[in-house]
Write a structure and sequence with these properties.
The chain has 258 residues and is an alpha/beta fold. The chain has 9 helices and 7 strands. The protein has one domain: 3-Layer(aba) Sandwich (Rossmann fold), CATH 3.40.50.
Length: 258
């Protein structure tokens, strides 16, 4: 079964977008109106256990399994090559694809990414799994992070969307994907253009000061952009700027035409 995906636009530049742990592909909804949909075609993919793929069996959250699921969407769309945009949790999938299928990727945009070498302590992993399994624990877990800088209603809305779009068992399972990522820290052989977008107000381990050296150690020519006024969700907190950063990078690395 092919993962559910929504298509926006009809342009020649093909972009596949992957979501994070707290949302399905609708997390990009606010940014879609700000893309040039005559020049771009966007495919927003719901990972197994989320959104339209909620009934899709979570065959495993190891990168190889999810890589195959994502590439199957591109194959179904008959996209031999494409730009890949991934957010947070799914940047693990994206960085693995850059190693396993580099010829498929015209460019790679990593939004508030998991970085090579980053691993969570066991106690945090266990806590996150528990939060994933039990939606009633999520407000307490995230109130201190999002309830102060942004409005309380933002936090409520995020938690409501998360509960509505995802299977708790899948949410808990995905913790191992990003908390035990074990991403390669050696320089990548393939010279895929890479853009990393960080939020100026994100948590320290997702901030530019942490992301830039870790990403550039693997992708020396990577571009790192800081989205002012945004935390972990630039596509929702600053959608016009987010769309501009992604589109400008995609246009600068246009797909080869035969």
């Amino acid at each position: 079964m092919i993962l559910a995906h929504a298509i926006d636009g009809h342009g020649p530049e093909r972009i596949l977008l992957l979501h994070d742990w707290l949302a399905d592909a609708t997390e990009y909804d606010a940014a879609i109106p700000y893309f040039d949909l005559a020049a771009l075609t966007l495919a927003r993919v719901d990972l197994p256990g989320y959104g339209g793929s909620r009934a899709h069996a979570v065959r495993g959250v190891d990168a190889a399994t999810l890589d195959a699921d994502v590439l199957a969407v591109a194959d179904d769309l008959k996209w031999s090559s494409f730009h890949l945009v991934a957010h947070s949790m799914s940047t693990v999938i994206a960085q693995r694809l850059a190693r396993s299928a580099p010829l498929r990727l015209a460019s790679l945009t990593l939004v508030t990414p998991a970085t090579p070498g980053m691993r969570y302590p066991d106690a945090i992993v266990d806590s996150l799994r528990a939060v994933g399994l039990d939606p009633s624990r999520r407000h307490e877990a995230f109130a201190s992070r999002w309830g102060a800088r942004l409005s309380p209603r933002w936090l409520e809305w995020k938690l409501e969307r998360w509960a509505a779009c995802s299977d708790p068992k899948a949410v808990a399972a995905y913790v191992d994907l990003f908390a035990r990522a074990d991403l390669p820290t050696t320089r990548a052989d393939a010279r895929i253009p890479v853009l990393a977008i960080t939020g100026a107000d994100d948590a320290p381990h997702f901030a530019c000061a942490a992301v830039e050296p870790a990403i550039r150690a693997v992708y020396p020519d990577a571009i790192v952009e800081v989205c002012p006024g945004a935390g972990h969700y630039p596509m929702q907190e600053m959608p016009p700027l987010f769309a501009s950063l992604v589109e400008r990078f995609v246009r600068a690395n246009a797909l080869a035409r035969v």
